Amino acid sequence: MTARVIDGKAAATGVIERAKTAGAALAAKTGVRPGLAVVLVGEDAASQVYVANKGRTAEACGFHSVTHRLPTDTTEADLLAVIDQLNADPAIHGILQQLPLPRGLDANRVVGRIDPDKDVDGLTLVNAGRLASGMAGEAFVPCTPAGCMVLIRQVLGESLAGKSAVVVGRSNLVGKPMAQLLLLADATVTIAHSRTGDLARVCREADILVAAVGRPEMLGADCIKPGAVVIDVGINRIAAPERGEGKTRLVGDVDFAAASELASAITPVPGGVGPMTIAMLMANTVSAAYRAAGEAPPRF
Ligand SMILES: NC(=O)C1=CN([C@@H]2O[C@H](COP(=O)(O)OP(=O)(O)OC[C@H]3O[C@@H](n4cnc5c(N)ncnc54)[C@H](OP(=O)(O)O)[C@@H]3O)[C@@H](O)[C@H]2O)C=CC1
Ligand SMILES: Nc1nc(=O)c2c([nH]1)NC[C@@H]1CN(c3ccc(C(=O)N[C@@H](CCC(=O)O)C(=O)O)cc3)C=[N+]21
């Protein structure tokens, strides 16, 4: 089988259009223009890609968009002060703290400082708890898993009853909320991680395989059940000497060429989950702005 390649860019364009229209409608009615702040500490490669793309998209949507770039040696007190200032800023409706943080900064403490009503990344205890309690409709759901669900539903429909799903990775940002969303859609969910024994065997059970590891092309043909839907979250920058000296390219956590021969559908990197993450961030930012203006947020 040669897998259908899932077009994350096309799916993202639709969501971004709706976010743009909804943002303009809110501004026309209430004068509130959606505002998004991103805080980046240090030099994480995947975060750099994200920050560049989200800035461009937020501007295309007509949002107010600011980026705080802080040096790797920023103290926790200084970082918390930036978050406090954004919490208090009425022009900002969404705050996104880029992860991972440099060593020495405690992600739980930093993320925990974000006002849950501005937590468009869905990482605070309030939003993570809502999701874990089955209240996804009232939560800000982390953008990447939310985007993955849109792509999975495009292929498999609303109900995943009877399907087995394996999520490789257990971060608060991707793996855990991904598993919660799959569970809410009635899939039978396994979460694998670095201490899983015989990872390939576990993965081969999956009708839906979501890879969120951060290791270039780690999952090969031995991890794919024939006919599986494969969602590759990984964003890894690797050397690409074939493109010239010092050049790099992005690859996922899945060996795309090998997996495509077995899967029924697969997301590419780039052009898969990444654009959907950005689109869901725009959607969450619009929702946060609607709530701040006392209006019912639109559905995406
Ligand atoms: N496309 C997009 O929009 C996004 C992409 N990303 C990318 O997705 C990847 C994962 O991100 P994130 O969840 O934040 O990363 P983390 O580093 O927080 O988590 C990685 C997870 O992978 C597991 N893992 C590491 N090595 C192995 C291994 N050899 N076998 C099995 N599991 C392993 C870890 O297990 P353990 O817990 O045991 O250590 C951990 O749970 C990164 O490449 C990141 O850049 C992230 C967010 C959005
Ligand atoms: N708190 C937090 N939330 C995140 O969601 C988060 C984060 N921290 N830290 C870093 C990772 C990484 N991430 C990406 C999102 C989109 C693209 C993206 O737009 N990718 C394009 C790349 C296109 C290109 O520039 O080549 C694509 O895959 O097609 C990449 C990476 C979000 N992350």
Task: Please tell me about this protein's structure.
This protein is α/β, with parallel strands linked by helices and 300 residues long. The chain has two domains: 86 residues, Leucine Dehydrogenase, chain A, domain 1 (Rossmann fold, 3-Layer(aba) Sandwich), CATH 3.40.50.10860; 133 residues, NAD(P)-binding Rossmann-like Domain (Rossmann fold), CATH 3.40.50. 40% of the residues lie in helices and 16% in strands. The protein contains ten helices and eleven strands. Strands 1-11-8-7-5-6 form a six-stranded parallel beta sheet. Strands 3-2-4 form a three-stranded parallel beta sheet, with helices on both faces. The chain has a two-stranded antiparallel ribbon with strand order 9-10. A hairpin with an 8-residue loop joins strand 9 and strand 10. Helix 1 packs parallel to helix 10 and helix 2 packs across helix 10. The model has no long low-confidence stretch (mean pLDDT 97). NADPH dihydro-nicotinamide-adenine-dinucleotide phosphate binds next to helix 10. Homodimer.
List the helices and strands and how they pair.
Blueprint: E1 4-5, H1 8-30, E2 35-41, H2 45-60, E3 64-70, H3 76-88, E4 94-97, H4 107-112, H5 125-132, H6 143-156, E5 164-168, H7 175-184, E6 188-192, H8 199-203, E7 208-211, E8 229-232, E9 236-239, E10 248-251, H9 256-260, E11 265-266, H10 273-292
Parallel strand pairs: 1-11, 2-3, 2-4, 5-6, 5-7, 7-8, 8-11
Antiparallel strand pairs: 9-10
Labels describing this entry:
300 residues, alpha/beta, Rossmann fold, six-stranded parallel beta sheet, 10 helices, 11 strands, globular, binds NADPH dihydro-nicotinamide-adenine-dinucleotide phosphate, binds 5,10-Methenyltetrahydrofolate
